[in-house]
Fold these 2 entries.
Entry 1:
Amino acid sequence: MELKESIICPGCACLCDDLDIILENGRPVAIHNVCTWGVGKFLAEKKLRPNKERRRLTDPQISRHGRAEKVSYEAALGEAAAILTQARRPVIYGLANSGAWAQEAALALTANLKARLEPADLAFMAPFYQAVQKHGLFWAPLEVIRDEADAVVYWGANPLHSCPRHAVRYAVFARGRFTERGIEDRQVAAVDIYRTELAGICHPYIQIDPFQEAALAEAVMASLNGHPASEDAPADADKLAAFFANAAYGVIFCGRGVAYGGPQVFDRLAALAARLNEKKPFVLFPLSGDFNSAGLYELLLRETGSPFAPDFADPAAPTSQASPVDFQEVDAVLVTGADLLWFLQAEQVQDLKKRQVPIVALSPFADRTTAQARVCLPVALDGIEAAEIAYRMDGLPVLLRPVASASAPPAHRVLADLNLFL
Amino acid sequence: MIGQADILEFLPRTDCGQCGLTCAEFAALLLSRERSPEECPVLHEPDYAGYIEALHELLAQAPPPVMQVDAERCNGCGICVAMCEYHLGNCPEARLGRGPRFHDLVVFHIVNGTAVVVRQDLCTRMLQAAEKCSKCAEHCPTEAISFKL
Ligand code: SF4
Ligand code: SF4
Ligand code: SF4
Ligand code: SF4
């Protein structure tokens, strides 16, 4: 038995750094302090919950006429390169669940292919960036939020599902420098269209009708500006306005629900945060669950100057697109760090199948996308079997060290090798 | 009173992990009757002949578990660890919202995504029968913790 202490979990963008892992013959068997979400990554065969097993991919495969055939690594790369170079409109998709080196390699590949890079969470993050470009950004690391924020709102977010230890480590229960009594020193509220487990800890818990979120944010703004609520304003706007007015340091954590509420919701929330920021620190914080979503946008901002999807279709004048790609135009996809077919709507999946759009999938696990892929390339688990860099949700870069041996190469190597085959 | 340490005496104490836990955690789950001695494969080896029977005898004398975590419900969020009244005074890591260190004396550890009661005897509820603490259960978002005392 071997004990490795203070390991970082690449399960979600919290990147918890306090895991203690017991290894037996080089494989993790017992992991302390990890949540259910993270344990699935470390233990592909979960002994405690055998019904949730995930199958690992072992060999590179090429599928022809629905039959998968094991091939050499080079043969798979050759086929993938042929597919992508012959395509008129290739897309490199995913990357929010990839390490920073894999993201860099994917961006280089995208440019070389004159393709478009489509972040898996673009529909969520692009409206966020558009809103802060318009209204300004106030930002703080999670430790500062833990130490200072006395008013926390989860908006369209259920952290207990997307990043289970977020509430306990940073936002609600942790005791910080000026929040010594933890939850007793904080006001915690939530806005959502469903009733979730958060209802027990959030007061007020505002359950709102779908597509009423922008109106609620506007009504809160009006109330803060001293205007009485109009008759058709969503209920509880005054309650939420009072909640914000009482805060000394506030933060709104936005979940995926914000994007479902329509493109204006982020805009209204950013306006609200900017208004509150005139008097006190107030952070608008997107909660992307994927473990290195922040790293991808850091890379895009650094390399292209824009947080949107880079498109090299015209290599002389590359563009950045805020609206999601129209998959009906796409004629070849490389997927890594995401499960494309799980994410797309049923009609979109049907359309890809009907048009026989070839998919090249890099994945550690068998998933819906690998099941339909023309070429499958197994990769190591970033941060567990291969070293990688990841950016925590607040932008803190950390080095993930491998704790187990890999049976497949890391995704960044496969992407770099593929680039050589073009 | 038979406790976790007494049970541990009859386990291999190698923390081999074949049960998915350490020996100490396995002992805790024996006490809470969520596991049985047969589930440690090492105890079936000839070196440990008689240990399984001895453990059954011990467990027959051990107090019934008063605190239970429903593993099906628990999501390993660790809120119970941070809110526990005993940890508040005795585990600085848990105060800060971090996980306790491996060797820290705590009521709960989170192991493989589930809260495991490792030292029920440290729970203040067991000491102060009059004012019963239930902070962990009150704050658990999935209502996974229950008491029988
Ligand atoms: S909250 Fe996220 S980073 Fe932390 S243990 Fe769970 S999955 Fe891993
Ligand atoms: S299988 Fe037995 S020896 Fe191995 S860790 Fe579990 S209890 Fe200990
Ligand atoms: S608070 Fe509840 S769900 Fe969270 S770890 Fe503890 S028992 Fe499990
Ligand atoms: S009941 Fe026991 S375990 Fe639960 S919070 Fe109180 S002291 Fe901790």
Note: Chain B touches chain A at residues 14-22, 25, 71, 74-79, 81-83, 93, 95-102, 109-114, 139, 141-142 (CB under 8 Å).
Entry 2:
Amino acid sequence: MLKYFRPDKLEDALVALSEYPLTLLAGGTDFYPARVGKPITEKVLDLTGIQGLRSIQQTDEGFSLGALTTWTDIIQAELPSAFDGLKKAAKTIGGIQTQNAGTLCGNICNASPAADSVPNLMALDAKVELKSMQGIRTLSLEEFILGNRKTAKKQDELVSNIFVPHPGKNAFGNFEKLGIRAYLVISIVMVGVVAELNEQDEILNLKVAVGACSPVAQRLRLLEKECVGQRLKSIEIHPKHLELLDPIDDVRASANYRNAVVPELLKRAITGVV
Amino acid sequence: MITAEKITVSFILNDTPQTLSVNPLRRFSDVLREDLCLTGTKVGCDAGDCGACTILIDGKQHNACLTAIGQVGGRKVRTVEGLSKNGELTPLQQAFLDEGAAQCGICTPGMLMAAQSLLYKTSNPSEQQVLDALGGVLCRCTGYTKIVQAVLKAGQDQSSPPVPKSGNAVGTRMVKVDGRKKITGEEIFGADQAPDDSLWLRAIRSPHPRAKFTYDDPEKVLQKYPGLVKVLTADDVPGNNGFGIYPHIKDQPVLAKNHVRFRGEAVLALVGDQVSVDCVSEEDLGLSWEPLEAIRGLDGALAGNLEPVQAQFPDNTLSRGYVKKSDVEKGFSESYAVAEGIWTTSAIEHGYIEPEAGYACKVGKNLEIFVCTQTPFMDQEEVAQVLGIEPKQIRIIPSAVGGGFGGKLDISLQPLVAVAAWILDRPVRCIYTRPESLASTTKRHPVRMNAKAGCTREGKLTAFEYRGDFNTGAYASWGPTVADRVPIHCTGPYFVPNVLSQTRALFTNESPSGAFRGFGTPQAAIAHEALMDALAEKIGMDALEFRIKNALRKGDRTATGQLLENSVGQVECLESLKSRWIKWRKEAKEFNKKTANTKRGIGTGCVWYGCGNTSMSNPSTMCVGINAEGKVTLYNGAMDIGQGANTIMVQICADALGIPASQFDLVMGDTDLTADAGKTSASRQTFVSGKAAQLAGEHLRAQIIHHAEASEKATIHIEGEKLIAKDDSGEHVILLSDILPQISGDVLTGKGTFDPPTTHLDENRQGNPYATYGFGAHIAEVEVDTLLGTTKVLRLAAAHDVGKTINPTQVEGQIHGGIAQGLGLALMEEYIQKVSENLHDYLMPTVGDMPEIEVILIEDPEPLGPYGAKGIGEHALIPTAPAILGAIKHATGVSIHHVPATPDCVLATLQKAGKNG
Ligand code: FES
Ligand code: FES
């Protein structure tokens, strides 16, 4: 068995995964930083040779983002306005180097509480497709990410794509990220929103998720429910909406600070959708 | 046993097909540098955080450190070496050279590649596009301003600065003498060169801030790893297992014995092939730790409940500083208004993009060390006592230095590679990883300051009192210098009749604090400037007017009683900012009327700073020679760490000698070839070594005149081996090949030494600690989001009295870079052990964080300096943070007493004052 396997067919990758535990490698933007000054001794399955995985496809049901879809691919793709939040997030990640190499799927598999794609994908109701020799499983993103750096992916599975159902006709996305500097920013708090509006700009349907304020980004379903029928500008945020959030003190900010700015960031993200 | 299977990878590298057999998981950056010898691609972090490794893959920018070589097959790669063709620079490279966009040059290849990817897409990018393109590359030297300008100018109507003629180099924008290699990737930094048969060294470091430790017999691990040659322990150090800046405090062990005092301290060093030294684990070594309760923070140092950090300092006090002028009590009692406060600052990392690197190699009975350093001659002495040999047995060959800022004034890997190479008689190299560099090297002192100032009703300062406790970490390093320098400067550039200042440097089990651009005065400036604002407000005077009123002037006496006779441009600096100050304040007021939660404000900060060592002899010697072929060489011992000493010294010496600067060759820093020009620190090189360069040039000129029997006013030309001195009486020709060469190979040489005159300071520290001072002032505009606590610096104007501008491009570059570091200090930088041991948790400003900057150069000549010049390196940084904090106060009404003023800190302060929203 080679220590490094870079197949060009998905089937070969799945066969290999069924035989050995392998570390998956794609853009390398999480893999290498975790191994600074350390020897790389594990066996690695490099997915970047599988061309079919780098695609964004529209089907009758929605959009399929292949496992190798990079942040730059998202930025450049023609996608409905509900994806605007995800695009905005893509532009705030690292520098362009990271956007060119890093993948969305890698971001969700790394499952950092500060993963930039997650609040947006949650707001888009994204599903995760997992493939293995056993077959295909589809999980919602919330089912997929179990905790800080923990996912439901089994040893022999890989995430083949992220699926986003067709957003409503008049749906708009937005993203707000709070960090300390202009580029190469890791979020203190972030908010992803998709809002479907009627002709009077009243909310028909709202999906909001907050990142970096809990081990896994959280959808704020109570807020979403209460906002239906309201105008964007008249939305009010109350503590009860934020009960699921449980921020911690870390190097970037205190829990108090996070709690203090979440409502404001939510307001900005929601009112900023159009 | 580690075996790495190899695969074959073929790709196009700089237009040429390449096929390699390699371990596919190796970082592409590593393969480029080590296997293909393309060291133009730099490594600053190996983690995607700094962008120094940026290359183009299929025309797009990628971090080579995040790319597995196995992924490169079939792709088209371009590195910095593949930019210019046939020695001809691309328009982008030319613009970098012309604009002075490269200082140390370690970020330059990454910057160039990132910019080039944009220029492939659009030849005429907007500024925003340029910022976005460069957003992933960090630069610690330039403040990005000239880099952005260079990219915008590339390929547009570019015009290069003219090459100065004979006698005209000083004052021109002459391009850097070493600029070209910095933009082609040819410059050789510490990690870029080592003998082929070098062994690698990796230090094993303490994961605990304080602990006892034991380890197994190293023989065991040597048996397990045949590629491992030696495990160095404290017992292997042949001389003194201790180093430190002060001759009487060699307190930091090369390798700790039994007991560590900070996280990151070296305990063992592995020497062998690269794979083996990387693979040995703590378990392999049988390292076992007994963590002890650590002394943390200033309160911990003062508590006295734990064993002191170092037994010889029972109260954890390393040193004290003091200045007393007249009677502060009386001064305060006569004051109409008094302001006081407490301020705290955080540990700050130097953040040079080049981690420490180099090698040592035994040559006969001597040892050569190639290393990035700010101070080759101190390294030489330090390593000599560690090895127990004579300094002259050691030759320090400095590499190009990828930034220093004070951090490379202390030794790092020098004694480790020296001991290994000495014992093993094999060349030994070492490159620090970024986490290792962050954990093990010095920081800017965190400080708690208590300061108080008073003034009369008319706004004349009456008294100033300052107490500062500096957290000096586990070892002395430059702690005493900081404790000494701060009291002298703590009033700011103002005339104060009564002064009392006291400082202490206190040991803790934290990173040793050392020298960092300004030696404690940037911290102190936060206090003195806040007090100036507070007093001005109390008596209802404009903050800038208040400063003008109190600014030091010629004829004033400083806090140490020194009479300032020359070159005191403080008032001019402030006056030059006045129109902007008024206009900006008005504009901010207008803006704030229209906004609820976005507030703008304008603040100011001032600096004065003595050039050179404090009340101490600190001579520089420079040599210049002409050889038989007519080649002129400046032997420059003044380390260029990016700030441009190489160019400045040539400019000065060329004019003194009277030949064009373009005819100069240069040797930098080599302890065998150059004379001691002291440390690159304390803003002393332009002033002290520059003067020595002038004297050396004049000395050589005098000899030429003498030899040629020409008159004093003669002009000098060199044409091959003919030296022609022309005066009213005609041409006098010297045939250089007729003169007997000296050991250096030169036939005519000049030497100059300058030691700035200072005096002893008495028991109240009264006297003349420095021969000259630089002065300056900044004004900054910020925008604060009062709901989120975020602060953006929008614009900044900086006026500095530099005596005489030797090279405007370089002086501006120093100021831009100082502002960037000052901005980082004010708003985002805080080093926390264990937590911020990487460059995504230790935040430094990116290209998008910089304000629009205007630089105003004031020239009040210093008669002692070369052509009137004095220093600027540290002055540039000091006023920035106070100006930003003052601007936040002006914008929001709240005073920030702790830096960094992160969004968290600002919002908490606003909330406390009921001013959020
Ligand atoms: S070395 Fe690659 S980003 Fe720092
Ligand atoms: S010139 Fe950019 S880091 Fe030195």
Note: The first strand of chain A starts at residue 4 and ends at 5.
